[in-house]
Amino acid sequence: MIQINHLSKKYGGSWKAPRDMNKNAEAQVYNRGNWALHDVNLTITEGMVGLLGPNGAGKSTLMRILSTLSTPTSGEAFINGVPLHKSEDIRRMIGYLPQQFQVYPQLTGAEFLDYVAAMKGISDKRHRKVEIDKLLEQLNLQDKARKKIRTYSGGMKRRLGIAQALIGSPQVLIVDEPTAGLDPEERVRFRNLLTRFSLGRVVLLSTHIVADIESNCRQIAVLDQGRVRMSGELADLQALGQGRVWEGVLTEQEYEMLDPLSVVSTRRTEEGMLCKIIADIPNVNSQMKRVNPTLEDGYLALLSDGALGRRGVSSDA
Ligand SMILES: Nc1ncnc2c1ncn2[C@@H]1O[C@H](COP(=O)(O)OP(=O)(O)OP(=O)(O)O)[C@@H](O)[C@H]1O
């Protein structure tokens, strides 16, 4: 279980509380550095949990903190009851795949995994070999195992990164955008591997691709601008689009007048522009009909509320 309490992280600058906390306090704090996380509270119990958010939302920052590679500015978190400052104990419990995964190009894949396994404390050589052979097969890397990593493609390096995170069957697996660079077949294979692995464990997976979460995650948390915008079941996110997703054929002029942030999809047809948009009421003359939201629609509806809110703030300033 991962318990996160009031976690915040600021990059750069130094923390200084505004003199008058009641007066536009947040804007003043913003000006004194880049807050990548703001008062994040989350409880992640068991199974595969998706951390979804657009670029720059704070997903990698949160994962680096949970992996003890970065420290929070304030707040705390526990993994299976162990506080993050006990970093050695935490590292024994977790597997981590960073977004930028560095490998040793002069080693073979098998040598690299053997090295990681030894560093993780698996001292018996035969035990390491059995585990590594199993992982190489699961990640479809057995043919490349004896080749130097510098000859691997980007997707192969990604799979090797996933293998190293799985060594030692950690109780908690933290994977940052694990499917980036994988082709569609590998992506599906990898999602299924993670789902199998998540039985009886915690897998926290970050992504900005809704499909990565839709097929395999039980629970979801959405981060945007460093804040948790929602957490719960997938159906809760989908429901946020209820009554707000519209489809219809628009004229080109109407299409050009649309707020780009509200447009989910567009296709040119013989009749005009077939559009799906998110809006409380569409501001067009052509007829649009309400459609049931997908998970992605719910996510976009949530983000568009945030974007509208932010626009409201900046126009008031
Ligand atoms: N080392 C750093 N120094 C300064 N700012 C940073 C640093 N790392 C991240 N940031 C900033 O913190 C914010 C959150 O970044 P983070 O990488 O955690 O987001 P993310 O959700 O993982 O994004 P992406 O999906 O693009 O990887 C961004 O504004 C980013 O510019």
UniProtKB/TrEMBL annotation:
Entry annotated with the keyword NADP: no
Nucleotide-binding is among the record's keywords: yes
UniProt KW keywords: ATP-binding, Nucleotide-binding, Transport
GO molecular function (one): ATP hydrolysis activity
Residue ranges constituting the ABC transporter domain according to the UniProt record: 2-250
Domain of life: Bacteria
InterPro entries in UniProt: AAA+_ATPase (IPR003593), ABC_transporter-like_ATP-bd (IPR003439), ABC_transporter-like_CS (IPR017871), P-loop_NTPase (IPR027417)
Gene3D superfamilies: P-loop containing nucleotide triphosphate hydrolases
Family as reported in the entry's similarity comment: Belongs to the ABC transporter superfamily.
Protein name: ABC transporter ATP-binding protein
Organism placement in taxonomy: Bacteria, Bacillati, Bacillota, Bacilli, Bacillales
